[in-house]
Amino acid sequence: MMFIRWNVEPVAFKVLGVPIMYYSLLFIAGTVLSVWILKRVYERNGMPWEHLQVLVVLSLVGLFLGARIGHCLIYEYDYYWKHPLEIFLPVRELPGGGYVFSGYEGMASHGGALGWIVALVIYSRVTREKIIRTLDAIALVLPLAACFIRLGNLVNSEIVGSGTSVPWAFVFERVDGVPRHPAQLYEAMAYLAIFGGNMLLYRRVGLRRYPGMLWGGMLVTVFSARFLLEFLKERQVSFEEQMSLDLGQVLSIPFIFAGMLFLLFAWRVSRGNG
């Protein structure tokens, strides 16, 4: 049976000897496109462009630090406890001494979510924007940004799926010769569909009619998709082999329940306004 053989070089090109990774380019592309969409949303809802600039800076810092620290502490704690500088620097120590540029290959979406929440609280205090309206605006583009990140994971041949014999299976040659589910692609497609659904819903109800609905719906759909697709992924760390659910699924459950609470809040507010 023919499968898709995947062996993409993660380095797109080099600038003065410094490798520029496809992952980084996809992250930047997703961020730029998300900001462009958010700019139009802010303008339509009378929210200052200056506030969006503050949000973008704080969000990038919060997402990066949360995702990076989350991965290092959750998935590779033993290594990074001995190499703490590598949490923040894009290098890896060689066994024989010295360092090599590795990029930021390890990112945890749940840690990124927590880091972004901290950034949002700071943003609200600085700009005095209502958190709930900002959350609904951000909910429109977060799935799109997540889609680009998962495409970056696909290029890096990381977060691979479990073995399968389906015709569209990928053989990640940089990992092994086993045909696997392209779980990164599944997840990217799910997030893109959620993004499309959110935009259609936004066009119908806007940001004011059901405060918290877009954010709550995004949390429920994104993390439900993440929870279900984890069944098609290879376990990332050895201790997960002893768990009935993997760590990604366990960490997704609180976000799903939080989303349900936001949906309940939106429903109660709409009934009160009605």
From TrEMBL:
Give the record's pathway: Protein modification; lipoprotein biosynthesis (diacylglyceryl transfer)
**Pfam families the UniProt entry points to:** LGT
Coiled coil (UniProt feature)? none
Principal place of residence: membrane
> Where is this protein localized, as stated in its record?
Cell membrane
Under the GO molecular function aspect, what terms does this record hold?
Answer: transferase activity
Any idea which UniProt keywords this protein has? Answer: Cell membrane, Membrane, Transferase, Transmembrane, Transmembrane helix
Residues spanning the signal sequence = none
Q: Which residues bind a 1,2-diacyl-sn-glycero-3-phospho-(1'-sn-glycerol)?
A: R150
What general EC class does the enzyme of this chain belong to?
transferase
Q: What is this protein called?
A: Phosphatidylglycerol--prolipoprotein diacylglyceryl transferase
Q: Which InterPro entries match?
A: Lgt (IPR001640)
GN (gene name):
lgt
In the bilayer, the protein is annotated as:
Multi-pass membrane protein
Q: Quote the EC number.
A: 2.5.1.145
Originating species? Butyricimonas hominis
Q: What does this protein do?
A: Catalyzes the transfer of the diacylglyceryl group from phosphatidylglycerol to the sulfhydryl group of the N-terminal cysteine of a prolipoprotein, the first step in the formation of mature lipoproteins.
- Stretches that traverse the bilayer: 20-42, 54-77, 97-123, 213-229, 249-267
What family is it from?
Belongs to the Lgt family.
